[in-house]
Design a protein that fits this description.
single chain, about 350 residues, 4-stranded mixed sheet, 4 strands, Asn/Gln_amidotransferase, ATP-binding
């Protein structure tokens, strides 16, 4: 289906009727490898993969039940309705050969020249397997995310991803940052797939009235390419926190930033810039967090495996006792490790 769509051979997917399948089903007892396959029936015009699966199961069960009752399976065309548990007879086959071919003496030999083959080969767009490989190896996406991007919105989600990657790359270059593609493309992929996906499952009544339509050419009116790129630019450069970035995305989706011309103006106007704690402030916060936690600290000495869970518990206390909007979790964890090491080194 993906391949046919890539070469523009069908107008839509199976769910819209642009691609349908016929399946042939026959049965024989397990272990009867030497016995020919049973008489097959054909089920026509199945419109989804699930329909193919369910129709095969229904026809398999029908044939087995018929044979066990001593009935003969007839070669015929059968139909199946979505949601049904039974196939139905449409018409019988005229003979063992379903399609009879007749030579036509008026048709001359068809010669396809190498020039036509070359022209057609050059006109074919990048095929799905090649694109999937590029998304994984060049862009650094997981196979699961790459497949999801390629399958959503009739290719529109993938085009949307490419446009944001390009726009973000330009912004980073203009900021004198020359990162490798794999250092920021996965961030874009995560947001285009998962953070955008969360917008449509939000239980907020206001959010339910909005739609997240992405056109095949990668345009999204609710969350424009440049706006999401701008959010990710500031997030990657640690100018805003992840929490603020998600809040900006939601506000953008709900059209609550219309008074600002750009995302940057919104961050400035709402005073959302990340003003990170100094190292001394981090250390003071870490010292406060471990007060009264002697039992927890002893585990860092006695445990053979580093107690990562206890470390994150103490980092969590830092987040609770401090100003979360000024704390970088990675830096908080780094400082907490150092403070714990200082307090436990004499006990080793």
């Amino acid at each position: 289906q993906t391949l046919l769509g890539a070469v523009d051979a069908c107008v839509s997917g199976m769910e819209a009727g642009g691609l349908r399948a016929d399946v042939n089903v026959s049965v024989r007892r397990t272990g009867d490898a030497g016995i020919p396959l049973g008489t097959r029936t054909e089920i026509k015009n199945l419109s989804t993969i699930k329909a193919v699966e369910d129709a095969i199961i229904a026809e398999r069960d029908r044939q087995i039940a018929a044979l066990e009752q001593g009935e003969e399976i007839k070669s015929e065309t059968r139909g199946w309705t979505l949601g049904s548990k039974h196939t139905r007879r449409l018409r019988g086959k005229e003979g063992e050969v379903d399609y009879r071919y007749m030579p036509d003496p008026d048709l001359g030999p068809l010669v396809i020249g190498e020039d036509l083959v070359s022209a057609l080969r050059e006109s074919v767009t990048e095929l799905p397997d090649v694109e999937l490989d590029e998304l994984i190896h060049d862009y650094g996406l997981t196979a699961k995310d790459a497949v999801s991007l390629m399958s959503l919105d009739d290719g529109g989600r993938l085009e949307y991803f490419y446009q944001i990657v390009d726009d973000l790359g330009v912004r980073l270059a203009e900021a004198d940052d020359q990162p490798q593609l794999q250092s920021y493309a996965p961030l874009v992929g995560n947001w285009v797939l998962h953070e955008l996906g969360r917008l449509t499952v939000d239980k907020d009544p206001e959010a339910s009235e909005r739609t997240l339509e992405i056109t095949p050419d990668g345009q999204c009116a609710a969350v424009p390419v440049t706006a999401l790129s701008e959010i990710l630019f500031h997030l990657r450069n640690k100018r805003i926190t992840g929490k603020v970035a998600k809040e900006l995305l939601i506000a953008l989706y709900l059209n609550n930033l219309e008074q600002f011309e750009t995302v940057t103006e919104a961050i400035e106007g709402l005073d959302l810039w990340f003003r990170e704690l100094s190292e001394s402030e981090y250390r003071q916060l870490a010292e406060t967090a471990i007060e009264g936690e002697d039992k927890v600290l002893r585990e860092f000495v006695t445990k053979k495996v580093y107690p990562q869970g206890k470390l994150m518990y103490l980092v969590g206390k830092m987040m609770q006792q401090g100003q979360p909007e000024r704390i970088d979790p990675a830096n908080a964890e780094k400082i907490m490790r150092e403070v714990i090491s200082e307090h436990t080194s004499s006990q080793n």
